[in-house]
User: Which sequence fits this backbone?
């Protein structure tokens, strides 16, 4: 029984690691994509979309928005899946004792 719980805990930890790595890659791609645009295509970012709003400002704000979204995805997953699974594993341990 103990091996079963340990295997379930290791599988949960692996899922958490994969999700964290995926979300980290999304954030890094977003951030470095923006930085590379700033470095290599300033005229594109200077394109005026509306009075007082350039493409660079819009994309810069989007980087912040993506950070919030990535954080929200992780928190939602942690609250709905990770915490629930840990609670289930703890309850299973308490039953075994």
Assistant:
């Amino acid at each position: 029984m103990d091996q079963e719980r340990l295997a379930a805990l290791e599988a949960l930890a692996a899922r958490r690691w994969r999700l964290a790595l995926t979300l980290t890659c999304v954030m890094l791609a977003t951030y470095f994509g923006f930085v590379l645009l700033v470095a290599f295509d300033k005229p594109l970012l200077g394109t005026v979309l509306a009075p007082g709003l350039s493409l660079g400002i819009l994309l810069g704000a989007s980087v912040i928005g993506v950070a919030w979204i990535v954080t929200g995805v992780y928190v939602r997953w942690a609250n709905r899946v990770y915490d629930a699974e840990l609670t289930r594993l703890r309850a299973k341990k308490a039953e075994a004792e």
